[in-house]
Amino acid sequence: MAGATLFVSSLLRPSNPYPEKNMPYECGMDAAGEAAAGRFRVPFFILAILLVVFDVETMFLFPWAVVLKDIGLVGYVEMFVFILLLLVGFAYAWLKGALEWEQ
């Protein structure tokens, strides 16, 4: 279904590429520096990926909190192991400098 939708939309959409339309856009100003060539700093993307990973992993805490009484001691211990692994990943990212902006 998704492929069919993309195919039909590629047939129906207008296509009018021109140089000004294909230029990178930065807050109404002409692109300058590294962004003008299409290069962006890698630490920005690493931080964004870390944010998504840790947000998704912490979403697993909500169902655990809802069924805390039903899962018993085993589920309680397993969730603390999960939290410990999150902290180890966070410490690793911190020590590797993935959370630093200035270099």
TrEMBL record:
GO molecular-function terms, A-Z: oxidoreductase activity
Key words, A-Z: Membrane, NAD, Oxidoreductase, Quinone, Transmembrane, Transmembrane helix, Transport
Subcellular localization, as worded in the UniProt entry: Cell membrane; Membrane
Enzyme's top EC category: translocase
InterPro entries (UniProt xref): NADH_UbQ/plastoQ_OxRdtase_su3 (IPR000440), NDAH_ubi_oxred_su3_sf (IPR038430)
Membrane topology, from the record: Multi-pass membrane protein
Pfam families registered for this protein in UniProt: Oxidored_q4
Catalytic activity, EC: 7.1.1.-
Chemical reaction(s) catalysed: a quinone + NADH + 5 H(+)(in) = a quinol + NAD(+) + 4 H(+)(out)
Transmembrane segments: 41-66, 73-95
Role played: NDH-1 shuttles electrons from NADH, via FMN and iron-sulfur (Fe-S) centers, to quinones in the respiratory chain.
Annotated family: Belongs to the complex I subunit 3 family.
Protein name in the entry: NADH-quinone oxidoreductase subunit
Species: Rhizobium phaseoli
